[in-house]
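In response to the reviewer comment on reproducibility (Comment 2.3), we provide here a single inverse folding case reported in full, input and output, so that an independent group could reproduce the run without further information from us. The C-alpha coordinates appear first.
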Protein backbone atom coordinates (compact mmCIF):
# COMPACT_ATOMS: atom_id res chain seq x y z
CA UNK A 1 0.00 0.00 0.00
CA UNK A 2 2.81 2.42 0.88
CA UNK A 3 4.54 1.60 -2.38
CA UNK A 4 1.35 2.42 -4.28
CA UNK A 5 1.03 5.80 -2.48
CA UNK A 6 4.65 6.64 -3.31
CA UNK A 7 4.12 5.60 -6.92
CA UNK A 8 1.00 7.79 -7.19
CA UNK A 9 2.74 10.87 -5.76
CA UNK A 10 5.74 10.41 -8.05
CA UNK A 11 3.47 9.72 -11.03
CA UNK A 12 1.44 12.85 -10.32
CA UNK A 13 4.57 15.01 -10.47
CA UNK A 14 4.44 15.93 -6.78
CA UNK A 15 7.66 15.30 -4.91
CA UNK A 16 7.47 12.73 -2.15
CA UNK A 17 8.90 15.24 0.33
CA UNK A 18 6.38 18.00 -0.37
CA UNK A 19 5.88 18.63 3.33
CA UNK A 20 9.60 19.34 3.81
CA UNK A 21 9.99 22.06 1.12
CA UNK A 22 9.37 25.75 1.56
CA UNK A 23 6.76 27.48 -0.62
CA UNK A 24 8.12 29.37 -3.62
CA UNK A 25 6.79 32.91 -4.05
CA UNK A 26 6.47 35.02 -7.21
CA UNK A 27 6.85 38.68 -6.27
CA UNK A 28 5.82 41.43 -8.73
CA UNK A 29 7.95 44.28 -9.95
CA UNK A 30 10.74 44.80 -12.35
CA UNK A 31 12.45 42.37 -12.20
CA UNK A 32 10.00 39.68 -11.15
CA UNK A 33 11.39 37.83 -8.14
CA UNK A 34 11.01 34.11 -7.50
CA UNK A 35 12.12 33.20 -3.99
CA UNK A 36 11.63 30.77 -1.13
CA UNK A 37 13.51 32.95 1.34
CA UNK A 38 10.49 35.00 2.49
CA UNK A 39 8.18 34.30 5.37
CA UNK A 40 4.46 34.17 4.70
CA UNK A 41 3.99 37.64 6.26
CA UNK A 42 6.77 39.20 4.14
CA UNK A 43 5.33 37.62 1.01
CA UNK A 44 1.85 39.00 1.76
CA UNK A 45 3.21 42.49 2.47
CA UNK A 46 5.09 42.51 -0.86
CA UNK A 47 2.10 41.21 -2.81
CA UNK A 48 3.76 37.89 -3.66
CA UNK A 49 1.81 34.81 -4.74
CA UNK A 50 2.60 31.21 -3.89
CA UNK A 51 3.54 29.03 -6.86
CA UNK A 52 1.78 25.72 -6.42
CA UNK A 53 2.24 22.67 -8.54
CA UNK A 54 4.82 24.33 -10.77
CA UNK A 55 8.25 22.84 -11.10
CA UNK A 56 10.93 25.37 -10.25
CA UNK A 57 14.31 25.04 -11.94
CA UNK A 58 17.26 27.01 -10.71
CA UNK A 59 19.96 27.79 -13.25
CA UNK A 60 23.28 28.98 -11.91
CA UNK A 61 24.77 31.87 -13.88
CA UNK A 62 28.35 31.82 -15.02
CA UNK A 63 30.75 34.48 -13.94
CA UNK A 64 32.61 36.27 -16.71
CA UNK A 65 36.22 35.21 -16.85
CA UNK A 66 38.83 37.90 -17.37
CA UNK A 67 40.42 37.83 -20.79
CA UNK A 68 43.77 36.08 -20.96
CA UNK A 69 45.45 39.16 -22.42
CA UNK A 70 43.94 41.56 -19.88
CA UNK A 71 46.06 42.29 -16.83
CA UNK A 72 44.78 41.07 -13.47
CA UNK A 73 42.94 43.52 -11.25
CA UNK A 74 45.40 45.83 -9.56
CA UNK A 75 48.29 44.71 -11.78
CA UNK A 76 50.20 47.22 -13.84
CA UNK A 77 49.67 47.04 -17.61
CA UNK A 78 52.29 45.13 -19.52
CA UNK A 79 54.92 47.47 -21.01
CA UNK A 80 55.48 47.30 -24.75
CA UNK A 81 58.99 45.95 -24.21
CA UNK A 82 57.62 42.93 -22.32
CA UNK A 83 55.27 41.91 -25.16
CA UNK A 84 56.33 39.11 -27.46
CA UNK A 85 58.24 40.33 -30.54
CA UNK A 86 55.52 39.22 -32.97
CA UNK A 87 53.00 41.47 -31.18
CA UNK A 88 55.08 44.63 -31.70
CA UNK A 89 54.39 46.92 -34.63
CA UNK A 90 57.19 48.42 -36.68
CA UNK A 91 57.33 52.20 -36.02
CA UNK A 92 57.51 52.93 -39.76
CA UNK A 93 54.43 50.82 -40.39
CA UNK A 94 52.59 52.59 -37.55
CA UNK A 95 53.55 56.00 -38.98
CA UNK A 96 52.24 54.90 -42.38
CA UNK A 97 48.97 53.78 -40.79
CA UNK A 98 48.66 57.07 -38.92
CA UNK A 99 49.35 59.04 -42.11
CA UNK A 100 46.73 57.02 -44.01
CA UNK A 101 44.21 57.57 -41.23
CA UNK A 102 44.98 61.31 -41.15
CA UNK A 103 44.61 61.58 -44.94
CA UNK A 104 41.30 59.65 -44.96
CA UNK A 105 39.86 61.63 -42.06
CA UNK A 106 41.05 64.90 -43.62
CA UNK A 107 39.37 64.07 -46.95
CA UNK A 108 36.17 63.10 -45.18
CA UNK A 109 36.29 66.28 -43.07
CA UNK A 110 36.66 68.44 -46.21
CA UNK A 111 33.70 66.70 -47.89
CA UNK A 112 31.54 67.09 -44.79
CA UNK A 113 32.48 70.77 -44.40
CA UNK A 114 31.62 71.42 -48.07
CA UNK A 115 28.26 69.69 -47.65
CA UNK A 116 27.62 71.68 -44.45
CA UNK A 117 28.38 74.96 -46.25
CA UNK A 118 26.00 73.95 -49.06
CA UNK A 119 23.28 73.08 -46.55
CA UNK A 120 23.73 76.44 -44.79
CA UNK A 121 23.49 78.32 -48.12
CA UNK A 122 20.29 76.46 -48.96
CA UNK A 123 18.94 77.09 -45.43
CA UNK A 124 19.50 80.84 -45.93
CA UNK A 125 19.47 81.72 -42.21
CA UNK A 126 16.16 80.00 -41.60
CA UNK A 127 14.38 81.39 -44.67
CA UNK A 128 14.97 79.01 -47.58
CA UNK A 129 13.18 79.60 -50.85
CA UNK A 130 9.72 78.10 -51.02
CA UNK A 131 9.21 75.36 -53.55
CA UNK A 132 6.18 74.91 -55.77
CA UNK A 133 4.89 71.93 -53.79
CA UNK A 134 4.83 74.01 -50.60
CA UNK A 135 1.64 76.00 -51.11
CA UNK A 136 0.68 74.80 -47.65
CA UNK A 137 2.74 76.89 -45.22
CA UNK A 138 3.03 73.99 -42.76
CA UNK A 139 4.91 71.92 -45.35
CA UNK A 140 7.38 74.78 -45.69
CA UNK A 141 7.81 74.97 -41.91
CA UNK A 142 8.31 71.18 -41.73
CA UNK A 143 11.02 71.36 -44.40
CA UNK A 144 12.75 74.22 -42.56
CA UNK A 145 12.70 72.18 -39.33
CA UNK A 146 14.14 69.15 -41.16
CA UNK A 147 16.86 71.32 -42.67
CA UNK A 148 17.74 72.76 -39.25
CA UNK A 149 17.99 69.24 -37.76
CA UNK A 150 20.11 68.03 -40.70
CA UNK A 151 22.49 70.97 -40.25
CA UNK A 152 22.84 70.20 -36.54
CA UNK A 153 23.62 66.54 -37.32
CA UNK A 154 26.17 67.58 -39.95
CA UNK A 155 27.82 70.00 -37.48
CA UNK A 156 28.06 67.16 -34.95
CA UNK A 157 29.64 64.94 -37.62
CA UNK A 158 32.22 67.62 -38.47
CA UNK A 159 33.03 68.09 -34.78
CA UNK A 160 33.48 64.31 -34.36
CA UNK A 161 35.84 64.16 -37.34
CA UNK A 162 37.89 67.03 -35.90
CA UNK A 163 38.13 65.19 -32.56
CA UNK A 164 39.30 62.04 -34.33
CA UNK A 165 41.95 64.01 -36.21
CA UNK A 166 43.11 65.61 -32.95
CA UNK A 167 43.61 62.13 -31.43
CA UNK A 168 46.11 61.12 -34.11
CA UNK A 169 49.79 61.74 -33.37
CA UNK A 170 51.36 64.62 -35.33
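Designed residues, in position order:
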Amino acid sequence: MAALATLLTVGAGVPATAQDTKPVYRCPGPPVLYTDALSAEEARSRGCRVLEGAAVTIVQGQRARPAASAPAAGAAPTPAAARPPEARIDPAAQRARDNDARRILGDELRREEERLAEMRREFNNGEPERRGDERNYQRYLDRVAEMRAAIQRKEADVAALRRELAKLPP
